[in-house]
Amino acid sequence: MIPGANSWMAGRRRLAGFVAGATLAIVALAFLVVQLAGGLLHTFVSPPTLALLGGLNLAILGVRLTELRILRTGRGHHVLQRPAALPYRRRDRRRAHRSRNVAILLAATVIALPHAATTWQLETVRRTLNETFAVASATSDPSVQPHIEAMIEENSAAPAAATTPSSTPLEPAPASPTVGDLPRTADGTIDIVLIGLDSGAGRTGARNDANMVLSIDPHTAEVALIGIPRNLVQIPLPSSEDDCRCYRPPLYSLYEHGQANPDLFTGASDPGAEAVRQAASALLDRTIEWYFVADLTAFRHLVDAVGGIDVE
Q1: What pTM was estimated for this model as a whole?
Q2: At 256, is the secondary structure helix, strand, or coil?
Q3: CB-based burial, 246-267: b 16+ in 10 Å, e otherwise
Q4: What is the pLDDT of residue 82?
């Protein structure tokens, strides 16, 4: 069970020190990867590095099995070693030989299992990274490349167009409001609370699991997106009848609370969304006048609108 112990008992002190030191180095490296973020973590969570760690893991396994074999071929008092004096009776010698083989097989299995599990996990992560972030083939596709270049050109030209003074405002599409029709905050931005519900076919309730505030600066075309944790509690709510003037349960249940108490949000076409809007406004101290609600069915429509995705 202890790396290097078999070599130590076989009298191979130098090999035992190497195996124990290498194992401790891997454990220390794994600890650093888990504890630290940023460059170190990003360096190790990459397919080539994961493959290298997998090879190192198998190399350590090979050394450990080698030291087990060295222990087996030596003579001594250890259960895996040949006894210094063999039993006199042939039947006893065969029984001792079988017992030693069974002990060696069990020891090899115990040693190999953690390394095998580590190898399987590393390969699973490496394969997942390759399949999930395989963008090289898409960017090199001749049919996709013109679209990518057009998007880059459009995005690079957008800031210059936005900052160029003009006496003639942009004409909106027919039946669409102009930017000037949208309410602004005190600093001139347009804020919208985005609400994602988990309601859909075959599901009960409508929890607002996703809550984000979108802030748009119409003059510079800059956009900020602020996420509000779904488990946030005691959220300030002006229409609350509680003494704290807040909503005590987690935020994800606020939409259902508004739907169940429409009298607290008089005149709102969607009391649940109005409740979330009020809470987000009070929490961020912003004048949020707009909200956008999407459930799972709407999410399907949004995915289909951009061409859909293939799931294997």
Answers
A1: 0.44
A2: helix
A3: bbeeebbbbbbbbbeeeebbee
A4: 65
